[in-house]
Amino acid sequence: MSGTVNDEKSEKASASYEERVAVDGPVGVEPTQAEHKRILRKLDVHLLPFVSLLYLLSFLDRANIGNARIAGMAVDAHLTGLRYNTIAAVFFIPYALAEVPSNIALKLFRPSRWIPSIMVAWGLVMTLMSLCKNYHDLIIARIFLGLAEAGLFPGITFYLSLWYRRRDVAARVAIFFSAATIAGAFGGILAFGIEKMEGVGNLHGWQWIFCLEGIVTVLVALASFFYMHDYPETATFLTETERAQVVYMLKEDQQNLATHYDHKFVWQAMLDYKTYVQIGIYMGLLIPVYAIALFTPTIVNQLGYSAARAQLLTIPPFVCGCIATIGVGLLSDRYHLRGPFIIGMAFVSLIGYIVLYTQRAPGAAYAGAVLSAVGVYPTIAVDLAWAGSIAGGDVRKGVVLAMVIGLGNLGGICSSFIYITPPYFHIGHGTIMGWLGLSILLSFFAMWDYSRINKKREAYCAQHGIVNDAETREKYRDMGSESPLFRYTI
Fold first, then answer.
1. Could you give the CA distance from residue 416 to residue 17 in angstroms, rounded to a whole number?
2. Is 0.90 topped by the overall pTM?
3. Where residue 316 sits, what CATH number does that domain have?
4. Which residue ranges does UniProt annotate as crossing the membrane (predicted)?
């Protein structure tokens, strides 16, 4: 039974959740280790496949323009010069600007209403892109696609943080983000088959790519209205005892920090320098990810493979990236570490881009493309888990995640304009090497800074006799990450 079938009941339960958490602190009982593992498995089964499907469709719809390009769109729409790059880039402007308002809206309304609604919007835009015939049509469509899609990725990342503790969330974000790598592989397979519909209904094959993939998104969005659950306390797949245990774990993890909306929490997020450090790390990682999604078909094609074979050869880098994403996410949660895994995998990707930059033989360069994807894809999930863990309180966390993802996505504009020198793309590969280096340096700084702050707070609490009990947590409830009880994940 869905958590959103009975709207009146769900709204009442949701209000009860906000009111009880704000007043009573941890509501429920502490689960045993065995109960905790069983509850996590139950949450995983009911949440992860669904949100992964949503993100798969989202990434497929934003990145399929790369497949459409080599399926004939560049020729039929007369995309000469930098026109394709511009079409790819304009998506990211409304996408970045709308993410913070979208996460606030998700908190003010309900996930089961907000997320399916924006899915319907971008699915319709995607479907109507099949009617685009020229450069100007595609520009307008991509602007609206970016606006409609903006809330999905930060929304789902924030949504998962409302269900899982900080120490458990990296693996879950990794699983849901791995849908992006599956989308990259799946997009190549779909494009290979769909472009054979050339001429059907007086549409080109690349137009059918937009049409069919958009229709699937709309159908899934409509089903989402009835399937998606809002909060742990309103989840019908959990028993009353399990709901109480989940709420208890989440409140303990967040040190009873505020869950209600207040403007001051938005300002806390926006004025914290650590938010901007995380934005820099994320941008340096996301630019390579978008470059891989937007230009891997073109890069492979330029290595000397036909367009059809290029569609299929884009699959292995994404499959390998998917496996690495899940594996690294699980390890990051097991050791409760973020920075070291980001730095290590960014180095792997850096090596891949060095191979791409220096090698001209198709086989060696293709191996570099695989290595670059394997390295950089896992860093995104781990970094988002890290960014979410630096923010105390629901609203502050939602705003931090939206800012990191939103401003970081402006890097997609950079990704769109650096691959302009075929067949070896030295400008593109060199630029990405620089961004990866920036992420590595900022990650080292963040690890040092968080460790410094944690030690300072431990000393402060010991000096002033501050104990971590219900009364003390209530005292520092509205301080967010500045609470002396709050500890940063390294």
1. 43
2. no
3. 1.20.1250.20
4. 43-60, 82-102, 143-162, 174-194, 206-228, 279-300, 312-332, 339-358, 364-386, 398-420, 432-450
